[in-house]
Amino acid sequence: MIIVLRPGTSEQGIQQVADAVKKFNYEPRLIRGVERTVIACIGDERSHHTIESLSVFPQVESVTPIQKKYKVVSREYQAHDSVLDVAGRKIGGGTFHVVAGPCSVESASQTIETAKAVKSYGATLFRGGAFKPRTSPYDFQGLGREGLDLLRQARAATGLPIVTEVLSPQDVEMVAACADVLQIGARNAQNVPLLAAAADSGKTILLKRGVSGLVDEWLLAAEYICLHGNTKVILCERGIRTFEHACRNTLDLSAVAVAKQETHLPVFVDPSHAAGRADMVIPLARAAVAVGADGLLVEVHPDPATALSDGGQQLTPKQFGQLMAEIRPLVEVMGKKFGSD
Amino acid sequence: MIIVLRPGTSEQGIQQVADAVKKFNYEPRLIRGVERTVIACIGDERSHHTIESLSVFPQVESVTPIQKKYKVVSREYQAHDSVLDVAGRKIGGGTFHVVAGPCSVESASQTIETAKAVKSYGATLFRGGAFKPRTSPYDFQGLGREGLDLLRQARAATGLPIVTEVLSPQDVEMVAACADVLQIGARNAQNVPLLAAAADSGKTILLKRGVSGLVDEWLLAAEYICLHGNTKVILCERGIRTFEHACRNTLDLSAVAVAKQETHLPVFVDPSHAAGRADMVIPLARAAVAVGADGLLVEVHPDPATALSDGGQQLTPKQFGQLMAEIRPLVEVMGKKFGSD
Amino acid sequence: MIIVLRPGTSEQGIQQVADAVKKFNYEPRLIRGVERTVIACIGDERSHHTIESLSVFPQVESVTPIQKKYKVVSREYQAHDSVLDVAGRKIGGGTFHVVAGPCSVESASQTIETAKAVKSYGATLFRGGAFKPRTSPYDFQGLGREGLDLLRQARAATGLPIVTEVLSPQDVEMVAACADVLQIGARNAQNVPLLAAAADSGKTILLKRGVSGLVDEWLLAAEYICLHGNTKVILCERGIRTFEHACRNTLDLSAVAVAKQETHLPVFVDPSHAAGRADMVIPLARAAVAVGADGLLVEVHPDPATALSDGGQQLTPKQFGQLMAEIRPLVEVMGKKFGSD
Amino acid sequence: MIIVLRPGTSEQGIQQVADAVKKFNYEPRLIRGVERTVIACIGDERSHHTIESLSVFPQVESVTPIQKKYKVVSREYQAHDSVLDVAGRKIGGGTFHVVAGPCSVESASQTIETAKAVKSYGATLFRGGAFKPRTSPYDFQGLGREGLDLLRQARAATGLPIVTEVLSPQDVEMVAACADVLQIGARNAQNVPLLAAAADSGKTILLKRGVSGLVDEWLLAAEYICLHGNTKVILCERGIRTFEHACRNTLDLSAVAVAKQETHLPVFVDPSHAAGRADMVIPLARAAVAVGADGLLVEVHPDPATALSDGGQQLTPKQFGQLMAEIRPLVEVMGKKFGSD
Questions:
Q1: CATH class for domain D84-338?
Q2: What is the rounded CA–CA span in Å between residue A221 and residue A190?
Q3: Among B135, B252, B316, the residue to mutate for chain A (most A Cβ within 10 A)
Q4: Do A62 and C66 touch (CB under 8 A)?
Q5: Is the C or the N end of chain A the one with fewer CB within 10 Å?
Q6: At the top level of CATH, which class does the domain C2-64 belong to?
Q7: What is the C-alpha to C-alpha distance for residues B91 and B82, in angstroms, rounded to an integer?
Q8: In angstroms, how far is the first alpha carbon of chain B from the final one?
Q9: Where exactly are the structural domains of chain D?
Q10: Looking at the partner chain, which of D247, D255, D274 has a beta carbon nearest the beta carbon of A246?
């Protein structure tokens, strides 16, 4: 921690802060500058108590942490890429995977037809929502348990592992019984009890970044999961909320590049939720590959105009085929191997 | 819904969209403009399926809802202010309440000392966190069940009703057994299973706006609670996340004014979380009163520099007394009555 | 400046950075922490070259300035409030002024009628745009030179000093010949050549915060003006651009409180541009008074529905009368004196 | 325009709004819905006066434009890509150009050395700032006229056309005498007098998006230039200001994809200003190519650690060579031709 004191702080004022620093078991080192005195506080900021509270002293101008708070997820902790195993698929470490499927599972035919279609175009995992977090209580909330059955059928029909969202700690057991990967959605990116329950299931977790989540917060959410003994975490960028409304969210590919540098975990991108409109999904998917993502999450529906949720952003199977055709040479340029190969 | 078609759309293209509109049980009305044709879709947007998915037709330029999605919380549904009863305190409808207390309850002495102090200065409810949602797993997570006991002691010592946060559906019963008001924090503003479980407890709910929550989303979260048969909801603005970092969040008082106009529910303001720094709490509290808020949520700690969470934003009891002295004449100008009077 | 080095940096790597620091005439002081070495750089950050460029060394994790860059506008430079004199009106230092008038001056009758009306309700300065910065080239761009004549007539008719915007360095002389206060709009908040030209006119400058301007950037823009020998600057908060669209902008009253603490300059608030809708102007005006602003800028038009620009946010004279009636007792509670009294 | 009236509006209230619509020369068409009446207003929204001011009627709930305001820059106006000619280089329409050079020109050797280096790696235009818009008045403001001379020398030495920024209408003539492309910076994205003066020079304009500029505003700024008879505009995305601070700005590649769809103008990307840190420039450059950009603007300095401005984001010539090597195969996959080929 670096504490900057206001100009003109008395010796007594300096001492008061230094004493407070010691109480928190940091060692204070005084640096007397031209105008301001700075106190560098020596100690591990993760195991020690935070001392940002010292900003309440009137003579303190600012308190700045110098250490990142995440540890287990960091490259300093593990330099090489984590490679996760999901039903035999290797994720991370130079592979590239496309998870595809409808926003919501709506019926057996819609689910299985989509699963077969996306598999035929090269998707290596299947996604579909059974429990849907919706902004309005008047919107379709998902088929719930019945939806999980449809997902099971899709896996039986195609062999694709299943990625599906869980909304509540109580549902983790039920959803984990069906899913190969538990998805934690953007609205739950800091829902600690849910992160803990999902971690405890032992399943791989696909962790979306919060709608307004800092990269640091996203990594700390992953750290919560890891501290529950489950390091099988896939990070997923899905667009952040900004002033710009040309697309529903602003896809933040710099966050992907930063995350790839900071952490050893695989990082995926969801261009569908970022764009909120089908016509922007393919260019954003291409950009995600080129920035260095390890995979994509893409929404596909046999008839988007009639979809029960987020129809405007879902691709038809044919459009998905186009997406796969466009990203394939880019994946190759990036030196990555399609997971299905 | 208003569907705008692209210039030059053929008659067939127009008909295709109109037919799709009919399938969703809206009645399409065509308006042929100078450049574009517009289809107005007649039907109740709340009870009908959304047709924003029609944006996938290439001839559709935009689909715009014209109806607000919330209903029960709206002034159209109930024109007069809701007045909630919390342990005999009337909230809303011309009263003004100050909820005060520490960010976290840390010990019996800290809790009870603070409760007595804030009561002596005029607070009418006591707040304190037992379950703390923290960004980092390495930070203090609250005393949990033991913290609830301390809150009970604070109520016994002062008679102040208790406001405390609940993080998980499983904890609702336990927390509700202690609390007079269940707080749903900003991180859980769209955690539907938690909203549902809290609503079902029958307790008054203090619902914070999400860190990047639209006013519409905030009101729809309240609508979720109301649809569970519990209309005892206090809305609470606590600052939104923007590019500006002079304060931790940007207190959005226009959202308070909009919410007061759109809904009959009481609206409180939390200047402590908005500011993230003690020296800005009092001016923001004054502004909140003047914009028309029905109450405040203020963090107070006997020794903020040693607080186990968010020390930098907590007021000392003496500073809290200053806050109360400054807002009292403003509450009077606004024609409101202090809840304790 | 504080330079944080990555864990495991070699002695040679540390020395390389220390040497670079010396080249920039700062004195490096090494603090060896538990994991990281920190170099505190002693020297005046305003007169020295910035060394944020040292972040390009791979062993550097971060470079953080510790000094604020503004000087002349700061409370450290001048502790007491600046009091500006505009045609005999004292601005700042415990007075409160309301600047009112139409968004654009459109005709002699509209201008003079409005000026008389706002004066009758207590406005102490008159505002009106002759040169309008518009997002679209197809929108009304102001009457220009002819508009300045109308403003002169308004002053002649009412005695109210004139506040009007200038858009280009070439126009400064012409506009300054008419205006008592030159307004620099939000789009020009970092237009340095315009700031310089306006400063050189010797007129009082009303400096709006940029649409996405940090408080620091706003104060540095004021510093540019002051360094041109003109310290007659009124700061004006007018809402920032965020994700929330219930109002056009998000009025950031915490920025007003921060600016009042950081600088001795008077700080005004423009609730009309912040809200973008007339029905929110009065509550935001009240909040601005209570947070501690020194004045307001309010748009008033005799018939807003027919206004040539920004009609939706302009008050009728009668609504303006209501605004004045509502803020008067709040100004009194704040211990301020209406400028006209 | 679509005007939505509040539920329960009387016939008289409806008529009042319809009459107002007619006064603005739109033709009102009434659509009576289940709860609300909607008035569709027929007329060209670009040539007619805006009627958003009608929102001041209490019975009006909202007024929504349905037409985009830009025209000349739109694909509806010109379906095929514009191809601009800059000193013989074809820009747009399937070519790809890299503009490279230092943030500021600082000396003859620094300028010419960099120009030669970037040319050797494949850059096809040279950039360098002579007039620098800086947030702080205490920072280096550029060499001005002397800097222009250095740019001339760089062109003489390498044959590369020159891209350089102009800050003030008065400087346009002087800068245009040296530059092949005039750059309008993000801070001046809505500086209409500067846009006009730059357009009038007849030079190609590289128009950066504002720090918080909507895509619509960016295109309208280009429309201002086009309406001055100069359609040689290159759009340049350079990151927007959001809550995320891992990079200095958030590069918004969805805006590039939207702009490519909406307009026929070439769209470039500046990953250097977006990132604000050298280590993120290459991945963002790759993503920009893959999303469909027509060119890049990249900052390169022989010794970034000693740069007089923005050192932290500048690449060394060697790093720039790495960037070129990484994007080349991606440009090929995108089916574009390097401008120099």
A1: alpha beta
A2: 6
A3: B135
A4: yes
A5: C
A6: alpha beta
A7: 8
A8: 48
A9: 2-64, 84-338
A10: D255
